Amino acid sequence: MPSTATRAAQELFDHHRATLDRALQAIAERGYWSPYSEQLKQYPQTAIEGAQAAFEALLNRPFVLQGPAAVGRAGAERSPYGFDLGVSYDQYDPEQLLARQQQALPAWRDAGPQARVGACLEILQRLNALSPTLAHAVMHTTGQAFMMAFQAGGAHAQDRGLEAVAYAWRAMAEVPQAAQWLKPQGKLDPLHLDKRWHIVPRGLSLVIACSTFPTWNTYPGLFASLATGNPVLVKAHPGAILPVAMSVKVAQEVLAELGFDPALVSLVVDTPEAPVAQQLALDPRVKLVDFTGSNAFGEWLERHALQAQVFTEKAGINTVIIDSTRDLKAVVKNLAFSLSLYSGQMCTTTQAIYVPRGGIRNGDEQLSFAQVAEALSAAINALLADNDRACAVLGAIQAQATAARIDACRELGDVLLDSEVREHPQFPGSRVHTPLLLKVDAAQRDAYAQERFGPIAFIVATDDSAHSLQVAREVIAAKGAMTLGVYSTDEAFLEQAEALAQDVAVALSVNLDGGVFVNQSAAFSDFHATGGNPAANASISDGAFVSRRFVIVQSRRHAAQ
Amino acid sequence: MPSTATRAAQELFDHHRATLDRALQAIAERGYWSPYSEQLKQYPQTAIEGAQAAFEALLNRPFVLQGPAAVGRAGAERSPYGFDLGVSYDQYDPEQLLARQQQALPAWRDAGPQARVGACLEILQRLNALSPTLAHAVMHTTGQAFMMAFQAGGAHAQDRGLEAVAYAWRAMAEVPQAAQWLKPQGKLDPLHLDKRWHIVPRGLSLVIACSTFPTWNTYPGLFASLATGNPVLVKAHPGAILPVAMSVKVAQEVLAELGFDPALVSLVVDTPEAPVAQQLALDPRVKLVDFTGSNAFGEWLERHALQAQVFTEKAGINTVIIDSTRDLKAVVKNLAFSLSLYSGQMCTTTQAIYVPRGGIRNGDEQLSFAQVAEALSAAINALLADNDRACAVLGAIQAQATAARIDACRELGDVLLDSEVREHPQFPGSRVHTPLLLKVDAAQRDAYAQERFGPIAFIVATDDSAHSLQVAREVIAAKGAMTLGVYSTDEAFLEQAEALAQDVAVALSVNLDGGVFVNQSAAFSDFHATGGNPAANASISDGAFVSRRFVIVQSRRHAAQ
Questions:
Q1: pLDDT number for residue A560
Q2: Which residue of A has its CA nearest to B185?
Q3: Which of A193, A197, A511 sits opposite B558 (nearest CB)?
Q4: Helix then strand then coil, % of chain A, to nearest 5
Q5: Percent of the residues in chain B that have a pLDDT greater than 90, as a whole number
Q6: What residue stretches are annotated with the Aldehyde dehydrogenase domain (chains A, B) (predicted)?
Q7: Which of B544, B31, B171, B509 has the alpha carbon at shortest distance from A176?
Q8: A-proximal residues of B, 303-332, CB under 8 Å
Q9: How does pLDDT run across A480-522, given as a tens digit for each residue?
Q10: How far apart are CA B183 and CA A19, in angstroms?
Q11: How far apart are CA B188 and CA B381, in angstroms?
């Protein structure tokens, strides 16, 4: 007989069934869809007006979550907009925390897919209601401008969470719960078995969050694991704990209200001086690891956490190839926004832009390499001319190391456009920097074919467009990429680009010169990363992202006569 | 425009569509179904009558396959029934072979899911027609008795291949090929993108076959990889090459007839003295490895072939727990067949049988431990009393090392039933041995909790049935298991067993005392292994078995105005 908690969660499943069904349709069709509004004005007036105060009420005090007895406190977040958050979080004894989650696992497993998915859908809906407040927390940890923090940290992250739940539900629902197995035996009675199948979670799931997208990059792994029955440890980045803590709190509240152990979703905090992710990732009870962050640690996880299924999103050399254009102005306007948005701190932001050193055709005219470079520089300048608008696009630089990298990279090439420090209109002391644009030759691979995280991009002079394709192929095969943009008026060239994209397994955007940008990835439509090149070993989200999070355990017996 | 080869393969897809659709229904329902008859008499009379001669025509000569220029020859198979096969096979330069497959990959990828699945379905149908001849090749490499070789090596293996194709097709078909993405922009025109998605194979696929089930354990990985676009290297076990070579030949014929490079499926042979699997498994072009065999090499692959997705089926401690029975005679008759079938050389054969040292309830009577042990010994004796029948159940021991293990294990416990050497009625010199049954105490874990491959089983005396559950839990958690059989008349105990099965992720069979055996695993219904305990890291076949074999590459552009 199902427990009270299970029945209550199943009611949530029924309550949210229409949303789930529409999400299932969306992942089958992958056209545009989102259940969570990205328009602030669509949220209740009280939520909008109270958001700032609700955020401030969290500052300068402990943030309280459920878990074992605290053995310490950590938290030293500082807003990239120039002030300390002053929030502290409990630290737990890892042994106690993992043991508690292990103990909570069977009840969560036995609740079954419907109950778990019902709980996940409720958590997502409550996260959505919290979006206006979450936006402030995301802004003041990541440095994203407010509107981006609201959209990417709120609705878009929730979309990604729901998308993962939909994939998880589909994968679980495709396994029948029971069957009659009747095998004919000629003139004898058939063999007749009753069979049952259980969805069994792999074990504990460790989700290692990043500092720049603490919700967007965390929700897919969190919800995919939780829906498939795995308790989740969310290890926040020391620089962006608060949005993760707020998300964990919502999950804990829903779980506790239903009667499950709220520690099924637990927050883990650490400090740069005493990191804990390595130790947790190697614990034999941890069977799933989701990671967003550096190549070094991602590759370490892939090589060492062999007891676990490891899903990594690392970094690569995001690439644009310009072969020929119809309207270069529209192209560079589009690219200028891509390069400037959140100061290039997106894992999808272009770093290398290949342009033939002899220039390109633009409509009826031939433009020199210098003219192309100048057009892009001018477009960035135009976009960022108005300081208020610039700050609303750029946001702030999350980490001081990223700001320092701008200076360190200046000498890697010829400066086409130098990075400037800007003064934020509301937050003096913000870490605001405009993009640095460098010119290098294709031979200077040490410069442009290493990841340079932040507002740093290279225009790379190649022999010709065939050479651009070849260099891009080699660099992406070796270093990976999340995105490839190609501009050409020649369909034969675009077919080569389409083949290249498949050969190195990178998502291709063709001739984006309007209101869609190469670094944007829309849930329910764009697969984020392919998992097929060194930039990531998994895609968010597809069937492979969820199917390895559970196993199927069968039981069979002779059918009752 | 699709190539001629692609169009021809798409026609095969249409031709076999009804079979595929029925297979899709089967994996969704997992009741009984098989498209390939396990009844020899259902095959054409000419095929049955010509099978022996067709097999003999292959002996004592080179077996010819397509591939790069040969650089050597290997093959020293000896039938466990006592004669040399005398077949030799080409060996290729690995660099040339891998380069050729890499070159063949794009055309196979670009043919698309329908064409690839069409080719796979045709290969399977031709393999089915070859079943009577394949049976002899399986028999005289594995040692399986003829009827088992015909069924398990023929129809059942083809079922497993088709099952993998069905999962692969479902996973690929769930990815839309294209979509219109229309995002509303308030009063402005919506953003409008055309999007396309490509199924992109991971790369080269290495399938490492085993000596006991060279087709059954090979077809799932082979067909899952091939259907999803990956060229396949089948590395045969030196002791069982011929059935693999015959299967590869059928695949090559279909591929060549369609106009694809037949080397998309290639045979790799080696010798025990100069094995090649390690080197191939670490090649950066090899992105998928399927392995059936020893724990030592399986774990080595899991730890070292980190550039690849690795699917292993290794070994564990298959377990039966006897708590109480209604009809012990029926139970021991069932177990006697399980332990004797193919001399215990199935990865699903029981090794440890836990019985309380105080005995068990059987119906209305109390039986002592000795009575239970004696009943099982007597049942094995009865089953194997008639030598012809015994040989038809036992088959022959594949490897001399397995026969030697019987002797080595005698001193591990008290001999309840000694292993006997038998004379095969048709093949003098066959390696035929009856099961060895030992009594040990639960404390003697070194004896029974190590895999003892072959006709070697232990009755393990425990404190009581709760102790049986506890020991089974610990042993399976540590060493893994493919199968768990439980006998009890107490539903509360069976519920504990059901929980145990989930906790250690092992397939459970309850009270099998008729014509179904714990070591049997039926395609389209029983998941073979769970992938959730140390005996295997993957299941044959489920969604997770196929979804990691390809990635999804998208391209998007503004819709034409």
A1: 83
A2: A515
A3: A511
A4: 45, 20, 35
A5: 99
A6: 94-491
A7: B31
A8: 303, 306
A9: 999 999 999 999 999 999 999 999 999 999 999 999 999 999 9
A10: 19
A11: 85
How far, in Å, CA of B246 to CA of B64, rounded?
A: 10
Q: Which residues pair with A509 in a beta bridge?
A: A485, B556
> E strands within A257-364?
265-268, 286-292, 309-313, 319-322, 324-325, 352-356, 360-362
* Residues 198-227 of chain A whose Cβ lies under 8 A from any Cβ of chain B: 198, 200, 202
Contact check, Cβ <8 Å, B197/A30? yes
Question: To the nearest whole number, what is the mean pLDDT of chain A?
Answer: 97
Q: Could you read off the pLDDT of B111-163 as tens digits, one per residue? A: 999 999 999 999 999 999 999 999 999 999 999 999 999 999 999 999 999 99
- Chain B residues touching A189 at Cβ < 8 A: none
pLDDT score of B222: 98
Contact A256, A298 (CB under 8 A): no
Which residues touch A109 (CB under 8 Å, ≥6 apart)?
A198, A199, A200, A201, A229, B502
Say if CB A356 and CB A369 are below 8 A apart: yes
Chain A contact for B530 (CB, 8 A cutoff): yes
3-class DSSP assignment, residue B511: coil
Contacts of A257-262 spanning 24+ positions with Cβ under 8 A: A257/A8, A258/A5, A258/A8, A258/A9, A258/A12, A258/A119, A259/A3, A259/A4, A259/A5, A259/A8, A260/A5, A260/A9, A260/A104, A260/A107, A260/A108, A260/A111, A260/A119, A261/A100, A261/A103, A261/A104, A261/A107, A261/A108, A262/A66
| A290 within 8 A of A205, measured Cβ to Cβ | yes
- Residue B176 has its nearest CB partner, among A28, A498, A539, at A28
Q: What average pLDDT does range B182-195 have in this prediction?
A: 95
- In the stretch 160-179 of chain A, residues with CB closer than 8 A to chain B read 170-171, 174-176, 179
Task: Check A501 against B555: CB less than 8 A apart.
Answer: yes
Is A183 part of the contact surface with chain B (CB cutoff 8 Å)?
A: yes
Whether B553 sits inside 8 A of A530 (CB atoms) is: yes
pLDDT in tens, B392-409: 999 999 999 999 999 999
Q: Domains in chain B, please, with CATH?
A: 41-315+542-558 (3.40.605.10), 319-510 (3.40.309.10)
Check CB contact under 8 Å for A551 and B530: yes
Q: What are phi and psi of A487, to 5 degrees?
A: -120, 120
Contacts of B15 (CB under 8 A, 6+ apart): B118, B121, B122
| The pLDDT of residue A561 | 63
With CB atoms and an 8 Å threshold, state whether A547 touches B552: no
The whole-angstrom separation of Cα B428 and Cα B442 is 40
- Taking CA B502 as the corner, what is the angle to CA B500 and CA B507, rounded to the nearest 5 degrees? 95
Cβ within 8 Å, pair A198-B555: no
B561: confidence class by pLDDT, cuts 50, 70, 90: low
pLDDT > 90? residue A163: yes
User: Are B228 and B199 in contact, with CB atoms under 8 Å apart?
Assistant: yes
Q: How many CB atoms lie within 10 A of CB B294?
A: 15
Which residue from B174, B510, B543 is facing A555, i.e. has the nearest CB?
Answer: B510
Reported ipTM: the value is: 0.97
Rounded to 5°, angle at Cα B233 from B258 and B15? 30
> What pLDDT digit, counting tens, does each position of B374-384 carry?
999 999 999 99
CB distance B502–A552 less than 8 Å?
Answer: no
**Mean pLDDT in residue range A21-40:** 97
Of B212, B216, B242, the residue nearest B155 (C-alpha): B216
pLDDT digits (tens, 9 = 90+) for B471-498: 999 999 999 999 999 999 999 999 999 9
- One-letter identity of residue A403: A
- Position B318, amino acid: N
pLDDT tens digits for range A436-471: 999 999 999 999 999 999 999 999 999 999 999 999
